[in-house]
Amino acid sequence: MIPGYTGFVPKSQNYFSRTYAETCREALSEFDREQRLRFEKAAVPDFTPKHSSSLPERKVTPPQIANLTPLPRYNTALAPISKEASPYLSPEAWHPHGSPYFMDNENPHKYFISGFTGYVPKARFLMGTGYPITTNKALIQFNQEINKSDPGTFPLPGEPRVGYSLPPISTIYPSNLGLLPSYTGHVPGYRFQYGHTFGHLTHNSLGLSTVQKQMAA
């Protein structure tokens, strides 16, 4: 081996205080001698017995089943009423708690677990706490606002919808006004208009076409 070889040299850990070439030569020679001796021993069959034959023979006798005394059969004092035992029903078994929207405000399960991707009303403006605490506060605030309104407007699950009506929804695109500049939603036809203010270009977005708005300007 030339100096600088970084591979493994078997038996090189047994030689030191020599040059690298001498160390590798002696190590490889020792490794080659061990390999030759191992191959020679493997080629000669070994006929020596592995176990001594001087052990005494064991006499195995069949079990004396006929001499065993049979055990008496006892009957219980109570008569069985069924062949199989009835299944166990735990008194503390898990039951679904229902929707957190309709739980009482004092219910400890009135929250959404972390990872819930649905909409939670009033949770947008709460921050600085964990998701379960945030959703709990948001749902309580939402229920308080619902209770202040007409109770018959929002029926609970399972109740008949007698006199049920949706709350009035404000118009998104007014016909007589333009939208506020901070509005970030979609405005039909707005992407093809330019040269005027946001309020002017969003005036009566659903009633006038892009060409009519440009002509009116």
UniProtKB/TrEMBL annotation:
Query: Where does it live in the cell?
Result: Cytoplasm, Cytoskeleton, Cilium axoneme
Stated family: Belongs to the CIMIP2 family.
Lineage of origin: Eukaryota, Metazoa, Chordata, Craniata, Vertebrata
Pfam families per the UniProt record, alphabetical: CMI2B-like
One Gene Ontology CC term in the entry: axoneme
Keywords noted in UniProt:
Cell projection, Cytoplasm, Cytoskeleton
As for what it does, the entry says: Microtubule inner protein (MIP) part of the dynein-decorated doublet microtubules (DMTs) in cilia axoneme, which is required for motile cilia beating.
Where does the Ciliary microtubule inner protein 2A-C-like domain lie?
Answer: 178-205
Q: What is its main location?
A: cytoplasm
Q: Could you tell me what this protein is called?
A: Ciliary microtubule inner protein 2B
**UniProt xrefs under InterPro entries:** CMI2A-C-like_dom (IPR018902)
